[in-house]
């Protein structure tokens, strides 16, 4: 009954035997042991399980693991480079955008995916883009501040990288 | 005043990087080798007799390691309230009958979640349905279905265990009444006689869900070799949890260790002892394997408590100039099928309003009534949001009726610093007057009020208060500290981090006293085995009580450092300064030693006696134990916090939709230990209040919650929040708090709800007396007004 699947998670290759009804978030958490992705509702409403699947943000509780076979996944554990935080992670810490931290992985990944498409967003655009991830602690004010601050930081980094002849 | 270098600063959270990188471990993330998964079978009926439970098929299923029903454990009672007067009325597993949809009937432990789910489907329960009652006013009538038989305690109540020398009595609910409260002061008749204007209104408040993002979960591991439980819980304080676990599992309290894990939000929803926690422990002891029970979101909605449903009648008498002369409250609380926190919330609806207005004559009658519905417990403010919405709405209307400015009416009646409340509590600090003036000024109150109706815009105000720790088991908090060989300190304290920033604030307080940085404090928190007593982070006493205990522990360490350094450096103690992990003489900075040197030398000189400190604090040191909940007499707390919120809204007359444009807050938390965290708490609760005011409500039809999902139970998202939330710190430096600090957060939610409702009135002239102000309700009010 189990099916063999292959996933690339944060650049590493994994092979799992999973039941066809197993969701991606379960496999990431229970089989790969990457517990950064959280399941808060299990029905695709809260966005706390958001991961990036082949470049697109998805609620991993709504994706069957077998449907992710052969695909590339980024979870919160793959966002920092070693001990160096991603500008979004740093901005979330610096701006007080984290309280209980349960939604933080989903928030940061949603923001990362959004800023890749829209590197210089307005606050309203950011609100619209982040609508799918729910947070009960912060009231969102500092989360929006952090995403906008990170977008500045990332543009600065890109400029520096370009000047450096990359 | 002394200049601070660590407290009063917006330092980033100590757990920030762990959370930003996904490394922070929540109970929800915990697994142990050889672990089993537990699942719970719940009642599908609101009221039914259990005739028989057949578990034989479930037990045969391969992979099932244990099935448990009340037959295996007997009628194990527990409850948030277990006093001599009100014995605990809940059961770990239903015995003879079920009283609400979702009540726990049986549980299984299996090698996988799928097998556990399948096993549940194989348990056959034979029920005989009973007539049910869902409306509290109907439940109080003669002839209504009786939900509980007489409850006869079979052991001493919790309060007896905790030192109150009064014996538990049995409880027979007459007309389903589960709690009564009669409070007040002055002469209510005289007060109304002296009033020149009297108004009476009735308000309705539904249940809401805490909706902490981490669902409720427990992991328990019984170790037979040490006869000991290790448990990981998503909770708000370990002492009460382990008291109830030890009692239900019949083991000594020292045989239950509650381990530290991060908690994914709480908001009052994780205080109560829960059946799933006991069941994980029972199943682990039956199987000798770790058992984890992780609830679904739907289970959290139906079985992990809601905020209290209330019907509140408010009658207030005033002089024509707005001076309040008398207030009479009649409140009906509907806590559901079990008492939950009903006696407490009935007291608090009065107690949390008492410090705000100087009302010379007050009477407050509260009744709690059982119904066949999900159980209610505290949620951020515990009764304050319900009562604040009611009283603040009515005061607003009184001002309108008398042609007074609602803010000026409030200002006229506010209590002030030094006031002694009817129960004897003193307001050692009170920022009400300063706060309302600040909020009015920043929001442009005078220019905006009453002037936006043609543009469908309005501005409104809400005021609320909250205590700072209260007398509840274990009646205090302590902290210990040690000096490490590298000159850093390890702090042990019981406070639990669930987002509010307690790990950071406690570290800041300790660092400040010792002249070190935040990085020099290594924190061990929320582990019941390693940390001393702590009354938990659910009485708004985190900073005021545990924080003060931490400060005193640091002072104790500091005294030992000074004592040793004074001898070693041959400098008088009052000439010594602690700074940058060093102690040196002010008069001669060359005379110095690092804390690391001090540690090594003190071990030599003091024959191995290390530098170890302790501190402790009790919320109301002046009195023992508990005030009377039912009479509202007796000392309760040593400080109150005040929140004022002014809301600006726009109402769409076509759709009835309310949009909150701006929230301006004035928050008297005494002194902000971490201003960034304080602002985060206020924003958090202002936005939760926005949800309560506009759309959050648990809808129950015939005892069934019909919206137990986040699609049907909407909470605020990024698009719902106002363009601006302006937080103004009103610094009042409470003399009893650590560095002058008090609680923050709980009262902001209450103030926001009232402010938004009052702003809707200012925009529309509609006084809606039922929460939430949904588009349907607003449109209906428009239509009713036209008629």
Textual characterization of the structure:
The complex is a heterodimer of chains A (166) and B (787). Chain A has 166 residues and is an alpha+beta fold. Chain A has 2 domains: 3-78, Beta-grasp domain (Ubiquitin-like (UB roll), Roll), CATH 3.10.20.30; 87-163, DNA polymerase, domain 1, CATH 1.10.150.120. Chain A has helices at residues 24-31, 87-94, 104-117, 123-129, 141-163; strands at residues 3-9, 12-18, 50-53, 56-59, 72-74. A 5-stranded mixed beta sheet of chain A has the order 2-1-5-3-4, with helices on both faces. In chain A, a hairpin with a 2-residue loop joins strand 3 and strand 4 (56-59). Chain A is globular. Chain A starts with a strand and ends with a helix. In chain A, 55% of the residues are buried. Chain B has 787 residues and is an alpha+beta fold. Chain B has 3 domains: 16-23 and 476-615, Aldehyde oxidase/xanthine dehydrogenase, molybdopterin binding domain (Aldehyde Oxidoreductase, domain 4), CATH 3.30.365; 31-132 and 214-266 and 270-302, Aldehyde oxidase/xanthine dehydrogenase, a/b hammerhead (Aldehyde Oxidoreductase, domain 3), CATH 3.90.1170; 377-470 and 630-786, 2-Layer Sandwich (Aldehyde Oxidoreductase, domain 4), CATH 3.30.365. In chain B, 29% of the residues lie in helices and 24% in strands. In chain B, the strands form 8 sheets. A 7-stranded mixed beta sheet of chain B has the order 3-7-1-14-11-12-13, sandwiched between helices. In chain B, strand 12, helix 8 (238-249) and strand 13 (256-258) form a beta-alpha-beta unit. Chains A and B meet through helix 2, helix 3, helix 4 and helix 5 of A and helix 1 and helix 19 of B.
């Amino acid at each position: 009954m189990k099916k063999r699947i292959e996933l690339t998670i944060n650049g590493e290759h994994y092979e799992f035997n999973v039941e066809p009804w197993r969701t991606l978030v379960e496999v990431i958490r229970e089989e790969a042991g990457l517990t950064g992705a959280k399941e808060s509702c299990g029905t695709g409403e809260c966005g706390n399980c958001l991961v990036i699947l082949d470049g697109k943000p998805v609620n991993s509780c709504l994706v069957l693991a077998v449907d992710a076979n052969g695909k590339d996944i980024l979870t919160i554990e793959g966002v920092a480079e070693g001990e160096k935080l991603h500008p979004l992670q740093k901005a979330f810490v610096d701006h007080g955008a984290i309280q209980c931290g349960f939604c933080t992985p989903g928030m940061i990944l949603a923001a990362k995916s959004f800023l890749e498409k829209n590197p210089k967003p307005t606050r309203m655009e950011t609100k619209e883009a982040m609508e799918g991830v729910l947070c009960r602690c912060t009231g969102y004010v500092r989360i929006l501040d952090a995403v906008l601050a990170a977008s500045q930081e990332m543009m600065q980094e890109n400029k520096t990288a370009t000047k450096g002849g990359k | 005043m002394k200049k601070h270098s660590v407290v009063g600063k917006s330092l980033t959270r100590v757990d920030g990087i762990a959370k930003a990188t996904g490394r922070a471990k929540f109970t929800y993330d915990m697994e142990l080798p050889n672990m089993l998964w537990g699942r719970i079978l719940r009642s599908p009926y609101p009221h039914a007799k259990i005739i028989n439970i057949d578990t034989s098929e479930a037990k045969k299923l391969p992979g099932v390691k244990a099935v448990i029903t009340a037959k295996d454990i007997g009628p194990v009672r527990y409850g948030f309230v277990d006093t001599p007067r009100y014995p605990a009325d809940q059961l770990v597993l239903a015995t003879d009958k079920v009283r609400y949809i979702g009540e726990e009937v049986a549980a299984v432990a299996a090698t996988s979640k799928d097998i556990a789910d399948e096993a549940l489907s194989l348990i056959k329960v034979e029920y005989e349905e009973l007539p049910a009652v869902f409306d509290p006013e109907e439940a109080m009538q003669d002839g209504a279905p009786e939900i509980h038989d007489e409850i006869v305690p079979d052991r001493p109540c919790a309060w007896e265990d905790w030192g109150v020398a009064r014996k538990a009595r049995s409880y027979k609910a007459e007309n389903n009444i589960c709690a009564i409260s009669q409070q007040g002061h002055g002469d209510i008749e005289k007060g109304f006689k002296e009033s020149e204007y009297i108004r009476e209104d009735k308000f309705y408040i539904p249940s809401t869900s805490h909706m902490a993002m981490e669902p409720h979960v427990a992991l328990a591991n019984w170790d037979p070799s040490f006869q000991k439980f290790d448990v990981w819980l998503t909770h708000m304080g370990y002492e009460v949890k382990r008291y109830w676990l030890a009692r239900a599992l019949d083991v000594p309290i020292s045989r239950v260790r509650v381990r530290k894990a991060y908690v994914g939000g709480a908001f009052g929803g994780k205080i109560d002892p829960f059946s799933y926690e006991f069941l994980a422990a029972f199943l682990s002891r039956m199987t000798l394997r770790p058992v984890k029970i992780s609830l679904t979101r739907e289970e959290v909605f139906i079985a992990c408590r809601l905020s209290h449903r209330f019907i509140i009648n408010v009658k207030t008498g005033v002089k024509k100039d707005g001076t309040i002369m008398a207030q009479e409250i009649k409140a009906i609380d509907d806590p559901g099928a079990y008492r939950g926190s009903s006696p407490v919330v009935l007291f608090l609806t009065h107690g949390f309003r008492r410090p705000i207005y100087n009302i010379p004559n007050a009477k407050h009658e509260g009744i709690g009534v059982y119904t066949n519905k999900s159980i209610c417990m505290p949620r951020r403010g515990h009764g304050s949001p319900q009562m604040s919405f009611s009283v603040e709405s009515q005061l607003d209307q009184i001002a309108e009726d008398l042609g007074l400015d609602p803010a000026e009416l409030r200002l006229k009646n506010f209590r002030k610093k030094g006031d002694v409340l009817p129960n004897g509590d003193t307001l050692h600090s009170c920022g009400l007057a300063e706060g309302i003036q600040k909020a009015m000024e920043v929001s442009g109150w005078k220019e905006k009020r009453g002037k936006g109706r043609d543009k469908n815009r309005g501005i409104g105000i809400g005021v609320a208060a909250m205590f700072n720790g209260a007398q509840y088991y274990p009646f205090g908090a302590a902290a210990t500290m040690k000096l490490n060989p590298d000159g850093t300190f390890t702090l042990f304290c019981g406070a639990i981090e669930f987002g509010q920033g307690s790990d950071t604030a406690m570290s800041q307080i300790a660092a400040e006293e010792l002249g070190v940085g935040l990085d020099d404090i290594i924190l061990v928190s929320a582990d019941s085995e390693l940390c001393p007593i702590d009354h938990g982070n659910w009485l708004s006493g985190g900073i005021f009580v545990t924080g003060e205990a931490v400060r005193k522990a640091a002072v104790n360490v500091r005294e030992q450092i000074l004592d040793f350094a004074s001898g070693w450096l041959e400098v008088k103690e009052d000439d010594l300064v602690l700074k940058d992990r060093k102690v040196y003489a002010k008069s001669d900075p060359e005379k110095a030693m690092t804390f690391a040197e001090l540690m090594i030398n003190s071990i030599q000189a003091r024959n191995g006696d290390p530098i170890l400190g302790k501190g402790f604090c009790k919320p109301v040191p002046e009195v023992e134990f508990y005030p009377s909940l039912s009479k509202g007499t007796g000392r309760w707390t040593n400080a109150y916090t005040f929140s004022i919120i002014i809301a600006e809204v726009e109402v769409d007359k076509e759709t009835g939709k309310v949009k909150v444009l701006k929230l301006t807050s004035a928050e008297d938390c005494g002194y902000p230990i971490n201003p960034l965290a304080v602002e985060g708490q206020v924003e958090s609760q202002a936005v939760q209040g926005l949800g309560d005011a506009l759309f959050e409500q648990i809808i129950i039809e015939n005892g069934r919650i019909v919206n137990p999902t986040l699609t049907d139970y909407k909470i605020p998202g990024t698009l719902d929040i106002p363009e601006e939330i302006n937080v103004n710190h009103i610094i009042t430096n409470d003399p009893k708090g650590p560095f002058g600090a008090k609680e923050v957060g709980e009262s902001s939610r209450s103030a926001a709800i009232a402010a938004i409702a009052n702003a809707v009135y200012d925009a529309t002239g509609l006084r809606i007396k039922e929460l939430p102000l949904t588009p349907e309700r607003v449109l209906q009010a428009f239509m009713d007004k036209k008629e």
